[in-house]
């Protein structure tokens, strides 16, 4: 699978479920559909609640949304969006980010998630805000193709760790093509400390170091225009950063 919109991992206290993968910048995370199948199996057992989406850390919902909204307000004030009509929430789950982060800023929000039950249950969670949803897609991000020249914002939160390096780059290349002129891609994710990638055997996901993440984004033909840290998370959590990206100019 590929979702990590809904999990915020604590730093590993032992190696029972989290393994340090000795990958340097010149290495790559291997391919293989087995990891996607394992991740999808894991997430198919998770409850369709905010606590489920956040891996048991529901208390982080408030500070997460607060900093995400601050970022969007900042980008709007700097006129870094040409329009704020349509957004895409990647790894949307039941719509936590859709409802509280994106809908206050964009007229319409599309949702994509690999777990069909999350998408099905999003209608109840969104309530009256369901009317602001455009399209809902049940698809893994490794296979998902956004509409071309369609979105003003593509938001990718806590999900990149479920993509292999090759699929990561290909996905963001497709996202780049999905942006309207003047649009932005925003990636919000956990970052490993040091040079090694952390692998979580429970949900089959990777947490990449900051420079590793930035290299892959650059490989996808994107320019990093903002790199901001999430504040007010408890100690003992992975660092979370927000990368604002635009396609490279030809």
Automatic annotation (TrEMBL):
Broad class of enzyme this protein falls into: transferase
GO molecular function per UniProt: N-terminal protein N-methyltransferase activity
Alphabetized CDD domains for the sequence: AdoMet_MTases
Binding site residues for S-adenosyl-L-methionine: 91, 96, 141-142, 157
GO cellular component, one term: cytoplasm
This protein's record includes keyword Transferase: yes
Pfam family, one: Methyltransf_PK
Enzyme Commission number(s) from the entry: 2.1.1.244
Family: Belongs to the methyltransferase superfamily. NTM1 family.
Protein name per UniProt: Alpha N-terminal protein methyltransferase 1
Originating organism: Strongyloides papillosus
């Amino acid at each position: 699978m590929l979702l990590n919109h809904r999990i915020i991992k604590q730093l590993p206290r032992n190696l029972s479920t989290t393994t340090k993968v000795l990958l340097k910048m010149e290495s790559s995370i291997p391919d293989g559909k087995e990891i996607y199948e394992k991740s999808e199996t894991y997430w198919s057992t998770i409850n369709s609640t905010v606590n489920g989406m956040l891996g048991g850390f529901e208390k982080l919902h408030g500070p997460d949304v607060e900093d995400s909204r601050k970022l969007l307000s900042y980008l709007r004030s700097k006129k870094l969006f040409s329009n704020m009509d349509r957004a895409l929430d990647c790894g949307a789950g039941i719509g936590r980010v859709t409802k509280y982060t994106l809908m206050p800023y964009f007229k319409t929000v599309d949702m994509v998630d690999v777990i069909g039950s999350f998408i099905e249950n999003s209608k109840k969670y969104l309530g009256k805000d369901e009317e602001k949803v455009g399209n809902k897609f049940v698809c893994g991000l490794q296979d998902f193709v956004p509409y071309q020249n369609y979105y003003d914002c593509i938001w990718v939160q806590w999900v990149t760790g479920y993509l292999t390096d090759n699929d990561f780059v290909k996905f963001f290349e497709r996202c780049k093509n999905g942006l309207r002129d003047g649009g932005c891609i925003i990636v919000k994710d956990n970052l490993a400390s040091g040079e090694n990638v952390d692998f979580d055997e429970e949900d089959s996901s990777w947490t990449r170091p900051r420079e590793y993440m930035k290299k892959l984004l650059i490989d996808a033909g994107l320019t990093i225009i903002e790199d901001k840290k999430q504040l007010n998370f408890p100690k003992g959590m992975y660092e979370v950063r927000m990368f604002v990206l635009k396609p490279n100019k030809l």
